[in-house]
Every structure is written in structure tokens, then in C-alpha cells.
Amino acid sequence: MSEAPQPTTAAEKQSSARVLPALILAMLSFSVVQTAVVPILPSLAKELSVSGSSITWLMTANLLSAAVLTPLLGRFGDLRGRKPMLLISLAGLVAGSALAVSTHSFTWLVVARVLQGAGGGVLPLAISIVRDELPKQKVTGGVAAISASMGVGSGLGLVATGLLLEHWSYKSIFWMGLVFGLIAVALVALRVPTDPVTDKDGGADPLGALTLAGWLSALLVAVSQGNNWGWTSTKTLGLFAVAAVVALIWGVIEVKVAHPLVDMKMMSRPAVAFTNLAGLLIGFGMYGSFMVISNFAQTPEKLAHYGFTATVLHAGVMLLPSALGSMVAAPLGALLIARRGPRLPLVLGGVLGAVAMAYLALRHSHEGDIYLSSAIFGLGIGLAFSAMPAYINGAVPVEQSGIANGMNAVLRTVGGAIGTAVMAAILTGDTMKLPIPVSLPTLDAYQHAFWTAAVVCVVAGAVPFLIRTVKPATSVTLGNRTADLTSGREPVKTDA
Known about the structure:
By secondary structure, the protein is mostly helical.
């Protein structure tokens, strides 16, 4: 039997109204900044006088930084408090944006993107703060809103890029990130209280952090640069080998140390392990599909006999329905989770993503096809993003919430890097011969890319059936304190 809903006090309503908007804006700030440069990489290569292969480091550096720093910030949030780490995460985003605004050097712009990657810590930290600060009945909706904001921000970032470039230079994109970041820092500083839940008995794990950073770095560089270096080149295969060896060493370290960065027993729980697999697949689908759809829309129709000769702005507008779909998904996902648990929205997320991509593989001759599929895809991504933290939060104690959600965010990022690389390989592997020195993928290549994304989404939708029903954890005794693990409320003293 489910518990009767408890009335929300005025204080709890005020807490929700103060905290949640600040956390959502923080999440939007990072997701907008992360994807905003994607449509303008070719023009940035010309602007900065670098090669097309070199300019991809602006994405690789950001993905790599986010992948490494997200679990570290999440774990330090568990150990030392979530609000201080959230402010540090946002400070990195602000510092990176400020540096990008002030420089014309490609090298310093790469450094700026590394700093911006610190914003990846926002997701696990914000989810943990929601568990700490919101009343129990509002946690599911709050977590869903923050997680779905990642999809919303990604879509809005693509539109904002096109809109800004219509009137200003590429610097305006980094100005946007700076303004968003400063507002988010101010709101978090003023509205988010110092969180009461810290793992004071935990300890640092510098060797675990170093080896985690090592294998993630090797893997992401290999995946991101594989198309440029060649997938069978010595550098690519060597980095894959390094990633495998260092990952094995990392796993051994985490099993043996007293206070691991990542509790491997926690990671091996089916609800966590399979949710992370779903996160990897959904990340593949989202980032890869955004890239393919944007490129397809911008293809000159007169040359290729497909595409829409869209500007960067027009292509971004075509993807705007995905942001709107993710907005709708947040409350819908929360409702489904409350009534049926997280399995249904995660399954629906994969199914809707597959339907959208399969539709584009079959129908793509009218702009309306892009708008419709974008909306369906955004709804699916939003539902999946809202469900994953619910699975994880129901399976881990509150003092591990930051690192558990942080690793899920890392795997979404890794999936995104793999998806982008795979889609790029599909498109560049089948190009048409043109009378001018321009290489364009064939229509078949785009259809193969859409079908690939559809299959990945189908698998993501099937993964939840491998997870047995998760009974929300109710409490755990920590010394003489009992913590509510479902809501993340402050541990209370007991007589035990």
C-alpha cells in the first residue's frame, strides 16, 4: 500500500520555490554552454585559422573535462557539502566563459572549454540537493525537472547559437554562457541553503581519482579523435588499450581502498548498473542525433538533392521542438514515476526516441518531418532523463547520491562522445562525388545514421526490463542517526 500524501507546509512550499528554480537554471546554464558551439565548429575553424580536425578539440576538451570532474565534484559534495561544490562547479563554467570571451587564441579557447566542463558537476550535485532540501512528495518532480533540463538546455543552446550569430560574432555565444553562469551563481548562493547531509566518515581517494581520470581521458580522446586519426591507427588503438588497462587498475583500487571514490558494490547493484547502461545509450542517441539532424538540415539542397539549405539559426529552430518536448517530459515523467515507478518512463523514453529516428529514416523531405520527429525525440529523452535518477536514488543511500548520479552523468557523456563519433563515421564513410571540392554524405548515409540511432534507442528502452522492481529505501542507521533515503531529508537522532 502506498502512503497517503502528506500535506505540504508553507515552509516546505517556500523551500521548493526558492531552491528548485536556482538548481534548474544552473543545469540549463551548463547544458546550453556545452552544446552551443556544435553548429559553429566549421565556421570557428575558419575564424581561428585551424584545421577541421583540430577544431573538434573544442568539443573533446569539454566532454573530457566534464567526464572527469563530474564524479569528483559529486563525491566531494557527498563528503564536504553539496552547495560549496555546486558553487565551485558553476565558478568553473563562469571562468571558462570569461576566458573564452577575452581570447582570440585557439589554445586558450580549448583551455576555456576545459574550465567550462566543470559545470558537469551541476547535475549530480543538484539532484542531491533536491533530496536534501525538498519535502518528500516533491523530490520526484524536482529531480525530474533538473534532469530533463539537460535536454531542454541542449536544444535551446542550438537555437540560441543561430540567433546570436545572425547579429553578432561567435564571441556572443560565450557572453551568453558568462551571463547565464553569473546569474546561476548568484541564485545558488542566495537561495540554496547549506545542505545538512555530508559523509563525514568518508575519506579521500586520490589514487582512485587519478586512475578514473586516466582511463576516461584515454577513452574519450580515442573515441573523439578516431575519425581524424583512423580507427585502426596506432594512436587510436593504443589509447583504447591504455583505457582498458587503467580501468582495470582503477576497479582493483576501488575494491581494496577503505574509502573508495566509487563504491563498486554500489555500482554493481542491478538498478544502478543497468540504469548506467541506459544512460550510455541515451547519451549516444541524443548527442549523435542532434549532430546528424543539424547537418542534414544545413545540407545545400541544390547540390545534394536533399536537406533544406538551412542556416545555423534555421537548423536550431528545427531542433527547438526537442527542447519543448523535454519541458513537457519533466512533469509527465514525475507523474508516471509517482504512479508506476521509473520503469515506464525509461521504456517510453527509448521507444519514443526510436520512433522519432525511424520516422526520419523513412520521411525527411519536408521541414515538418524534422519538427515532428524533433518533438517526439525530445519528449523521449526528457522521460528517460527524469527516470534514471529515480532508479539510482531508490537504490543508493543519500550519502552516496552525489557520486552515484555523477557516474550516471559521466556515462551519458561517454555515450554522447561515442554517438557523435559513430554518426560522423557513418556520414563520412559514404560521400557523393561533386563537381566542386566539397564532400557531402549521401542520403543513404543519413538514413543509416537515423536507423542506427533508432536501434540504440530501442536497446535503451529494453534495458529497464533487466532491473527488478526497486523498493525505495526508507532509512539507514548511521551511528545514532537514522536517515530517510527516499527524500534525502536530514538524518534525525534516534534512541537506538
